[in-house]
Amino acid sequence: MNQVAVERVPAGLQWSALSERGVRAALREGDVMLALAAPVAIYICFYIPLRKSMSATGIDFAQYLLPLVAVYAMFFTAMFAADRAGREVAGGMATRLRSLPVRPWVPVAARMSANLLRGCAALTSALVVGTAFGFRFHDPLTALVFVLVALAFGAAVVIAADALGTATRNPELGGTVLFVPQLLLIMTSTGFVPAEGFPGWIQGWARNQPVSQVTSALRGLADGRYPSELGVAALWIAGLLIVGAVLATRAEGRRA
Predict the structure, then answer these.
(1) What's the gap between Cα 175 and its chain centre?
(2) From CA 185, how far away is CA 135, in angstroms rounded?
(3) Which residue has the higher pLDDT, 151 or 184?
(4) Which of 110, 246, 251, 78 is nearest to 168 (CA)?
(5) C-alpha to C-alpha distances, 226 to 9, 222, 233, nearest whole angstrom
(6) Angle subtended at Cα 121 by Cα 117 and Cα 123, rounded to the nearest 5 degrees
(7) Measured distance CA(65)–CA(43) in Å, rounded
(8) Mind listing the pLDDT tens digit for each residue in 59-117?
């Protein structure tokens, strides 16, 4: 009888109930506070020591740095996503859901709701601290596109991280595995310095890798333009979203 009753629960209601659970956990366990604090710390740590040297080259570093901090905020959210997905499996919640008639995409979509909250908090924090140090949007419409692109990139890396956390079934391992590639992508991007500041052998990678393309697109949007990098960034984001969604759903369906 209980099985029949559960089968009648629409997927939308299942998603709503699991989303509420995830959001409550994010608020209760301090995830949102960490999401607010991390971009502030990163912005200040890089802006204060580098602003004079960057200003000497004619770069408005407050304006230049913020897009990279927004990207970092999304990576930070992705580390939370891997951690939470791993906890769901390690704690047995994933197994309990698997015993119920819950479609594989529902737990993934529910975790994305909580991750969206973390991502919005992190991006808001980045914009607030950037504005305090001199960052400005120069057009309201491109500013809106800036936010949408940043959140779309966040969704892409978050869903891939969710798949990793579910597959590894280990919250510590998921976050640790993500740390190295995200650090390499950020440090070899044009987020801190232009491509010309890298050795010649790595300039091509520094200019064209996804973090550089997304950061350059955000930088142009912040300045009130629609830069050529926006199309490439959209392709990177779409590709990551598709691959991440497929991997996350398959990992959820195969979990033990």
Answers:
(1) 13
(2) 23
(3) 151
(4) 251
(5) 45, 9, 12
(6) 115
(7) 8
(8) 898 999 999 999 999 998 888 888 888 887 777 777 777 777 777 788 888 888 888 88
